[in-house]
Design goal:
The protein has 8 helices and 12 strands. The chain is α/β, with parallel strands linked by helices. It folds into 2 domains: 32-135, Beta Barrel (OB fold (Dihydrolipoamide Acetyltransferase, E2P)); 169-244, Vaccinia Virus protein VP39 (Rossmann fold, 3-Layer(aba) Sandwich). It has a 7-stranded mixed sheet. A 3-stranded parallel sheet has the order 10-11-12. Strands 8-9 form a two-stranded antiparallel ribbon. Strand 6 (124-129) and strand 7 form a beta hairpin. The longest helix is centred in the N-terminal third of the chain and has 15 residues, at 61-75. It is globular and about 60 Å long.
């Protein structure tokens, strides 16, 4: 029994209508992946087992190609590998790659070396350690939605849908649920994955989110796409409930 059959069986008693299943490829589908670094390898964990690798087939083709190249550069540099404990990857539809390298030491002295590495590999690198951050570009990573070619932005530490094949299908599915649109209150809007395309359907949108980085990405998208009908507020779902009941929030 595969996972779809198990899911169907589990919900049969509560939902008997036809299920529409959108499939993505079995590999090369993840545009966001995080790895530990140990013993000259990328590392993932299966319970208590360490899995050592030089590449990972589930990541996008752009990330798969970059992983061994970056690893080789790191392993051949004593300063880059020293106290490096995590390496995160993100890619976009243009096959650009953003890498975050996180250290258990003051990484400020690595800034010039990271600049050179970024230029050599043609990637955007963010360097992080305790109370320190350095980026070879700005902190925003641009991507595009298929819907009206909207620009959308993410940072290296905010949530972004990792499956590039399902992202636009998810947006189309949500749009298909909407009838007689007027105004929209959106909870936990994130970086605006649904907010941006839905702004062409609804008269006005109030998008709420309590993550500061996600709000910054949303504001960047609103500016770059010149969208006039999205307002935002840094509120959690519970705070929105209190707002509806009459509580005032100064930070809006």
């Amino acid at each position: 029994m595969n996972k779809f059959q198990r899911f169907r069986k589990n919900i049969d008693k509560k939902y008997s209508n036809k299920l529409i299943i959108n499939l993505s490829p079995a590999s090369s589908f993840r545009c966001r992946s995080e790895f530990s670094y140990k013993d000259d390898h990328y590392v993932m964990y299966n319970k208590n087992e360490k899995i050592y690798m030089t590449s990972y087939k589930n990541t996008s083709n752009a990330i798969q190609k970059m992983m061994p190249r970056l690893l080789n550069e790191i392993n051949n540099s004593r300063s880059l590998k020293d106290k490096l404990f995590q390496i995160n990857f993100r890619s976009n539809k243009n096959n650009n790659v953003m890498v975050t390298m996180i250290y258990h030491k003051n990484a400020e002295l690595l800034s010039d070396k990271i600049k050179d590495l970024s230029n050599k590999l043609n990637i955007h690198i963010i360097l992080r350690s305790y109370k320190f951050i350095f980026s070879t570009n700005d902190l925003f990573f641009e991507d595009r939605l298929n819907f009206k070619d909207l620009k959308i932005y993410q940072t290296d530490n905010c949530f972004f849908q990792p499956n590039k094949f399902l992202l636009d299908k998810m947006i189309d599915t949500v749009k298909g649920f909407i009838e007689s649109p007027k105004d929209l209150l959106e909870l936990y809007c994130g970086v605006g994955t649904f907010t941006l395309p839905l702004s062409t359907i609804f008269k006005r949108i109030l998008a709420t989110e309590n993550d500061r980085n996600s709000i910054k990405c949303l504001l960047k998208s609103i500016e770059m796409n010149t969208i006039p009908n999205i307002d935002h507020a840094r509120l959690s779902g519970n705070e929105v409930s209190l707002l509806i009941k009459g509580k005032e929030f100064r930070r809006m």
